[in-house]
Amino acid sequence: MVEVTLDHVSKVFGEGAQKVVAVDDASFTVKDKELIVLLGPSGSGKSTLLRLIAGLEIPTSGDIIIGNKVVTELTPKERDVAMVFQSYALYPHMSVFDNIAFPLKIRKLPREEIKSRVEQTAEILNIKHLLNRMPGQLSGGEMQRVALARSIVRNPQVFLFDEPLSNLDAKLRVTTRGFLKRLQKDLGITSIYVTHDQEEAMTIADRIVVLDRGKVQQIDSPDAIYSKPQNIFVAGFIGSPPMNLIEGRVLMRSGKIFFSSESVNFELPQEMMRNKVTNEELDKGKNVTLGIRPEDVIATATPGNYARVFKGKVYITELVGNTNYVMVEAGKMILRTVASPGFRVEIGKEVYFTFDLQNIHFFDSETQERL
């Protein structure tokens, strides 16, 4: 059983005014045979975290444990991990066979064993017919598989992937990420995968570690992160298009609870705020951020029979496949909503929208945390 544990790991570059905290007190465990994705925007620390696990960087503080062994001070060679980079890093003067065989030759394994392992690995990745070709004769997808084969042939304890699909075109990325997920499950190797592409993360991960400015924001399954974001950053980062976030207050008037903002005001069911805010906070009015995903905001050309309906103007429409996103301007707020594919209201014209209250999220505006 091979687990990877980070125990209060931090990495600081520079000193004084030049000091940069790339990783800030990260603690989590990657379970045996799990594929975990490190996800975050540029500068969030995800690649630095991967390099720390690989041994390409040494932590400023904290420990890294692979299996039952503390590897914090060990070299990459001593950690028994294989890393697949964004660039394929193939040797252009070597054949595909020799590129895959290279790490085995470095270990000075017998020739027959090298040949056997290379051919077995090439069979798994469906590139056996490419073994005699040179890298310059390969497509991007083929080169990526050769880079994968070079890592797999070593039979490492842990796979580390640093944005391995970012150089592929959109169609090939979709195909290859499915192949990668199936391959990881078939091989049963503990894997850590870095990407800034949330769609990629949501489709391949067993769990996702969301990072921002070096700090872990949330660790959970893709479904849980999407449906129950723990703070405003995760709520706004996860989802395409992103969650609508509306600044306002929750307050009690005449025994009823309301959400009030510059753009929308409506009554909330009493149970929605139970154990989330105190009666004292309701009496004063508590500053909150309401979050609701576009698919939970319905735009219509007429008021219909909805219990709560609000009025705005069409800012712009975006038809993506069979999903019709309508951006609605209501006061100072621009809200992304979903309408039926046949929705036809001109830009600038009046439109109505309503919320699905079952899927509303509330966050403390001060702490940024989920209520």
Word description of this protein:
It is built from 10 helices and 20 strands. β4 (61-66) and β5 form a beta hairpin. The model has no long low-confidence stretch (mean pLDDT 91). Helix content is 25%, strand content 34%. It is elongated and about 85 Å long. Strands 6-7-8-3-9-10 form a 6-stranded mixed β-sheet, sandwiched between helices. A 5-stranded antiparallel β-sheet has the order 13-12-11-14-20. With 371 residues, it is α+β, with helices and mostly antiparallel strands. α3 (96-106) crosses α4 (111-124) and α3 (96-106) runs parallel beside α5.
Furnish the topology, listing elements before pairings.
Blueprint: E1 4-13, E2 20-30, E3 35-39, H1 46-54, E4 61-66, E5 69-70, H2 76-79, E6 81-84, H3 96-106, H4 111-124, H5 140-152, E7 158-162, H6 170-187, E8 190-195, H7 198-204, E9 207-212, E10 215-220, H8 222-227, H9 232-237, E11 244-253, E12 256-260, E13 265-268, H10 279-284, E14 286-292, E15 297-300, E16 310-320, E17 323-330, E18 333-339, E19 350-355, E20 361-364
Parallel strand pairs: 3-8, 3-9, 6-7, 7-8
Antiparallel strand pairs: 1-2, 1-4, 4-5, 9-10, 11-12, 11-14, 12-13, 14-20, 15-19, 16-17, 16-19, 17-18
Helix pairs in contact: 3-4, 3-5
